[in-house]
Amino acid sequence: MQYNVYLSGEIHSDWRDQIKKGIAEKNLPVTIFAPNCHHESSDEVGNAILGEEDKAFWKDHKAVKINAIRINNMIKQSDIVVVRFGDKYKQWNAAFDAGTAVALGKSLITMHSPDLTHPLKEVDAQALAVTETPEQVVSILEYICQAS
């Protein structure tokens, strides 16, 4: 069975690359989807396509909606959604993606450091697995691929 996996959340580290590398090394039947991880182009897409805004609220409003077209469609196409919460920034969008995944009946895996266990307890309660490392995510993917 082929699995589609959406990798949501923190964009300031190489965790996605680590998961992709692990999938490739194990030759798993997994296709990866991801958001636009280039922070500046993601934030500027509304202005770039629809025109400049004077107020930051409207600039962000346009950008988030355009990005949501991509994100929502990728989550809908996915079997599994992995949401990484980093230690440095508050990823409210990642929490939203986790909620969207659950609402759409997708299997949710969260990934974060133990320091975030308490603040993310409600999100983790919806996850089918709570991980700390990309290697753990790859191991879960390897296990489910073997079982299919």
Structure commentary:
The structure is a single chain. The protein has 148 residues and is of the alpha/beta class. It has one domain (3-147): 3-Layer(aba) Sandwich (Rossmann fold). It is 52% helix and 16% strand. It has six helices and five strands. The protein has helices at residues 15-25, 39-50, 56-77, 92-103, 121-126, 134-147, and strands spanning 3-9, 30-33, 80-84, 107-111, 129-131. Helix 5 links the parallel strand 4 (107-111) and strand 5 (129-131). The longest helix has 22 residues, at 56-77. 28% of the residues are buried. The mean pLDDT is 94.
CATH class: Alpha Beta
**Count of DSSP-assigned helices:** 6
Question: How many E strands?
Answer: 5
Radius of gyration: 16 Å
Strand content: 15-25%
Query: Strand order of the main beta sheet, please?
Result: 2-1-3-4-5
The coarse overall form would be globular
Major pleated sheet: 5 strands, parallel
Helix content: 40-55%
Given as residue ranges, the uncertain stretches (5+ residues, pLDDT < 50) are none
